[in-house]
TrEMBL record:
SUPFAM superfamilies: Ankyrin repeat. This is Ankyrin repeat domain-containing protein. ANK repeats lie at residues 125-157, 159-185, 258-290, 291-323, 348-380, 389-421, 489-521. Pfam families: Ank_2. The keyword Disulfide bond does not apply. It comes from Acidicapsa dinghuensis. Keywords: ANK repeat. The keyword Secreted does not apply.
Length: 555
């Protein structure tokens, strides 16, 4: 049964509820398990074990959110943090949307009407309009917002990060300059990931550092930390930092998912000079990241054979991940004799295939499958991106743009429709988010759902889906176990196509029997929704449709 939020809900109290609930699940409390079964998409899987050790705080937050009638924790959090007035909520959302789209005339009009909402947070990640303009790579919108008084040093809630953190991460150099020129803090310590601005510019394992951005930051007050120094091959900075603070040699990247050490980072960033500097300073060869990888394991899985040999020459031990990636048959056989089921579901290395999908080639994936690895295994939330459940090897390969792994995983039956539980993204969605369009398009050649077909304008695929499953055209999204966070449970494919401004998909759906008389929970017609988004072509399509009996969706 849906619980009611207090009239004035408090986010901190909701966080405490989630933490308390997590503790109850960990000890196997009966009521907690019942809540898990009722509200978590993977409740059955968690509840099978006496104490679901893989259940994380993110999962507990999801259960709490669902109990209050929200599809996710970010949606509950955004609701709690919104301004009280419904009109203000809508106006603030429109300001963020206009900023993200770079719609300058609309943004100017909204700011003139609601100047007090310029720094309001909300939406996915609980960000401001300035954050959204950065995400959309809209320098003109960034400049307009700054000229209207937007605070360049306001933090979003999710990452506790400034707009500048995201600008450097995404290599939007013109925006970086604009922000710095308007007073953005070039250091930016205190973000959730403990990297500072220069760390965001350099230390993410999926990011190729932009020298122009790094040089600009250093020239305007930023200073290297151990991770940015390692990531950019700044050996003098490495030596200086370790001489002043020896503990930095073995400092974990605690605010990142894999909690790696500097030596791991040198391997990932292919910085041989950083690697040698760290080895000369005595870095630990056997340090383990959150996935249980040593630097040698990481080098082997990344295909860095020369780096792997350097580590072996310095005395690194060969463990199963490195043995498989380096195809050391005798070592593989020796290690598997000790635990033949280690790569199978629930084995010690069951999620090794996820790590392989991130950076190894298809031949490594083939070997893992041969020894029992499951292509649809869910990564442990402690190592999956954003602590999500249901993150599979195909999600990992898609996010990293690893086409070789994608091809091999699909060949062996990887589920292209699987959605993870935090952002509700499919593998194609993760590839799209990361900018790997070729990988996204390869995945979309497979039998995707009508939701993905609409999102990526695959009209021919919509045709084949409707032939195989005629009810899909008018199926409410609440009938799916998971659907995109930017959709609502009352949505049908037609409502979704309208929300995404997919004119041709709207036209096709209406021509094939989509119900245009659907209404939202608040009683708004699809035409009303299209008008609110200024989608005149879609409004015309909808209003020329012969009227039927309006059907307001209810649960």
């Amino acid at each position: 049964m849906k619980k009611q939020l207090p009239v004035r809900p408090n986010l901190e109290q909701l966080k405490k509820q989630a933490k308390a609930y997590l503790a109850e699940v960990k000890v196997g409390a009966a009521d907690a398990i019942n809540r898990l079964l009722e509200h978590h998409p993977q409740g059955q899987g968690f509840a099978k074990t006496p104490t679901p050790y893989q259940f994380t705080l993110a999962d507990a937050q999801l259960v709490v959110a669902c109990e209050y009638g929200f599809a996710s924790w970010p949606k509950l959090r955004a609701h709690v943090l919104q301004p009280e007035s419904g009109a203000s909520v809508q106006a603030a959302a429109e300001i963020r949307e206009a900023a993200g789209q770079g719609d300058l005339p609309r943004l100017e009009t909204l700011l003139q009407a609601h100047p007090e909402l310029i720094n309001e947070v909300g939406g996915s990640g609980v960000r401001t309009a300035l954050h959204q303009a950065v995400f959309g790579n809209k320098p003109e919108a960034v400049e307009l917002l700054l000229n209207h008084g937007a605070n360049p040093n306001i933090r979003c809630e999710g990452d506790n990060a400034y707009p500048l953190h995201f600008a450097v991460e995404k290599n939007h150099f013109p925006i970086v300059k604009l922000l710095i020129e308007h007073g953005a803090d070039p250091i930016g310590e205190g973000d959730y990931h403990e990297l500072g601005v220069i760390g965001w510019a350099t230390a993410w394992d999926y990011l190729d550092s932009d020298k122009e951005t790094v040089d600009y930051l250093l020239a305007h007050g930023a200073q290297h930390n151990i991770f940015s120094a390692v990531a950019t091959g700044a050996t003098e900075a490495i030596q200086r930092i370790v001489s002043l603070f020896p503990e930095q040699l073995e400092r974990r990247m605690n605010g990142t998912k894999m909690r790696r050490f500097p030596l791991h980072l040198a391997v990932i960033k292919k910085q041989s000079s950083s690697l040698q500097a760290l080895l000369d300073l005595g870095a630990n060869l056997e340090s383990l990241d959150e996935a249980g990888f040593t630097p040698l394991d990481q080098a082997a899985f990344s295909g860095e054979i020369g780096v792997a040999q350097t580590l072996l020459n310095h005395g690194a031990k060969v463990r199963l991940p490195a043995a498989i990636a380096l195809n050391r048959t005798q070592d593989i056989q020796r290690l598997l004799m000790r635990d033949p089921d280690t790569l199978k579901p629930n084995g010690r290395w069951a999620t090794l295939i996820v790590r392989a999908a991130e950076s190894a080639n298809g031949s490594v994936i083939e070997q893992l499958i041969r020894y029992g690895a499951d292509v649809n295994v869910s990564d442990n939330p402690t190592t999956s991106i954003d602590s999500t459940w249901g993150y599979t090897p195909l999600h990992a390969a898609a996010f990293r743009g690893n086409m070789s792994a994608v091809e091999t995983l699909i060949q062996h039956g990887a589920d292209v429709q699987r959605r993870e539980t935090k952002w509700h993204g499919t593998p194609a969605g993760w590839a799209n988010y990361a900018g790997h369009t070729a990988v996204r398009d390869r995945i979309l050649l497979e039998p995707v759902s009508i939701i993905d077909a609409i999102e990526y304008s695959l009209l021919l695929r919509m045709e084949s889906i409707s032939q195989e499953d005629p009810e899909a055209i008018n199926r409410h999204f609440e009938k799916y176990s998971l659907f995109p966070l930017y959709a609502e449970g009352w949505f049908t494919p037609l409502a979704f196509a309208i929300a995404l401004n997919k004119l041709e998909a709207v036209r096709w759906l209406m021509e094939h029997g989509a119900d245009a008389s659907l209404r939202s929970r608040e009683g708004k017609s699809l035409s009303d929704i299209a008008k609110s988004k200024n989608l005149s072509a879609i409004v015309e399509l909808l209003e020329n449709k012969p009227a039927g009996n309006a059907k307001q969706f209810s649960i």
